[in-house]
Amino acid sequence: MAPLIICKKSLTSLAEEKYVNKKFIRDEDERPKVAYNEFSDDIPVISLAGIGECGGERAETCRKIVAACEEWGIFQVVDHGVDTELVKDMTRSAREFFDLPAEEKLRFDMSGGKKGGFIVSSHLQGEVVKDWREIVTYFSYPIKARDYSRWPDKPEDWRAVTEAYSEQLMELGCKLLEILSEGMGLEKDALSKACVEMDQKVVVNFYPKCPQPNLTLGLKRHTDPGLITLLLQDQVGGLQATRDGGKTWITVQPVEGAFVVNLGDCGHYLSNGRFKNADHQAVVNSNYSRLSIATFQNPAPDAILYPLKIEEGEKSVVNEPITFAEMYKKKMTNDLELSKLKKMAKENKLQEEILQKVKVEAQVKSCKSLEEILA
Ligand SMILES: O=C(O)CCC(=O)C(=O)O
Ligand SMILES: [Fe+2]
C-alpha cells in the first residue's frame, strides 16, 4: 500500500502503484464524466494577428473575444506574439524540474504557508480530498515582491527562462485586458487601472500518469479567483469546462502553441456578470503524464473590486466593494468549509444508513424469535 504521509513525498512515486491512495478518491458526483482525450472544438481559437491595427481586423477579433467571454469565459489565442522558442524552453525546463528526485524538489517544499515552491496537490491546507498533481509555483510580479529564494535553482536555466516567460506573458495579458476593456465599452486601460498594479503568479502543474483516473481529478472543479489566466497545455488533453453547473463537460482540444485564456472571478465581477468566470477542472489518465503552465494575472491585493460599469436597470453582482485580498480569503475559506461540510454530511448519511441497517436486523431477529416462540 502507498504510504500515508503523502505531502512530504512526490506524487511521481505513487503513480507507480496499482491503486490510487484513498486520499485522492473523489465522491462519485465529482469524478470525471468525459474522457481526457474526447476533444471538443466548442471553445473558439482566435488569432491575435491583426490586433495592433486600428479598425476592421482588430474590431472583429475584439468581437470574437467578447462573444467567447459571454458564452464560456474561455477562448484560445494563437499568433499571440509570445516567442515560440521561449515556450519550448519553458516546457522543457519545467519537465526537467519534475523529473528531479523527490528530495531535490522538496528542497523548495512550500508546505506551512511558504510563498512559492513545490508541493503535491495544492498549497491550501486542510483539503478534504487531494488533487492528483504536483505543482511548482512562483510569484513574478510586482518585481519588487519577488523572493528568489523560493524559485528552484535546478535545472540551471530555470530562473532565466521563467523570468523571460513571465515578462512575455505579462505583455500578452495586458494586451488582452485592453481588448476586454474596449469590449466592455470602456477606455483601453480601464481593467489594468482597476488592478492598481498587476500581480502575476505562475503555477506549473504536473499530472503524473494515474492508475485509476476515473476515481480522481488532477485539479478539482473551480473558477480562478483573478482577472485572467493564460494556460499553456501540452498535447495530451485534460482541461475540461462546464457551463451548466457541472451537468455536462467538454474537454478542451489542445492546440499546438496556443494559450487557453480563462476569465476569473474578478473578470466576472468587474464586467458586472457580463463575462463568465470559467468553470473548469483537469482530469488525468493512465497513458501519459501531462504538463500545464497557468499564468494568473491578478489585481493587487488592495485593489477594490466593484463593477466598472452597471447598465441601466441592472443591479451590481457585488454587494459591496471588496479588496482582492478579502475576496480571495473568503473564496478559499468557503471552498474548504464546503468540502468539510460535504464530508460531514456523507459521514452522517453513512452513520444513519448503518443505524437503519442495525435497526432492521434487530427487527428481523426479534421477529424470528417470535416465530420460534409460536412454533
Ligand atoms: O491543467 C489544467 O488544464 C488546468 C489548470 C488550472 O485550471 C489552474 O491551474 O488553475
Ligand atoms: Fe484554473
What's the helix-strand series? HEEHEHHEEHHEEEEEEHEEEEH
Number of strands: 15
CATH class call of the largest domain: Mainly Beta
| Average pLDDT taken over every residue | 91
Instruction: From the alpha carbons, calculate the radius of gyration and give it in angstroms.
Output: 23 Å
Distance between the termini: 52 Å
Pick out the low-confidence regions.
Answer: 1-7
- The CATH architecture of the largest domain can be given as Sandwich
Instruction: Enumerate how many helices there are, as a single number.
Output: 8
**How much helix, percentage-wise, in residues?**
25-40%
- Spatially, the strands of the biggest sheet line up as 2-3-11-8-13-6-5-4
Small molecules held by this entry: 2-oxoglutaric acid, fe (ii) ion
The CATH homologous superfamily name of the largest domain equals B-lactam Antibiotic, Isopenicillin N Synthase, Chain
CATH topology of the largest domain, which one? Jelly Rolls
How would you describe the shape? globular
Structural class: alpha+beta
**Count of distinct structural domains:** 2
Oligomeric state: single chain
Strand content: 15-25%
Largest sheet: 8 strands, mixed
Description:
- There is one protein chain.
- The protein is of the alpha+beta class and 375 residues long.
- It folds into 2 domains: 11-320, B-lactam Antibiotic, Isopenicillin N Synthase, Chain (Jelly Rolls, Sandwich); 323-374.
- Helix content is 34%, strand content 19%.
- The strands form 3 sheets. An 8-stranded mixed beta sheet has the order 2-3-11-8-13-6-5-4. It has a 5-stranded mixed beta sheet with strand order 1-10-9-12-7, with no helix packed on it.
- The radius of gyration is 23 Å and the shape is globular.
- The termini are far apart.
- The relative contact order is 0.15.
- The model is unreliable at 1-7 (pLDDT under 50).
- Bound molecules: 2-oxoglutaric acid and fe (ii) ion.
- Residues 203, 205, 219, 224, 231, 233, 238-239, 280, 282, 292, 294 line the site of 2-oxoglutaric acid.
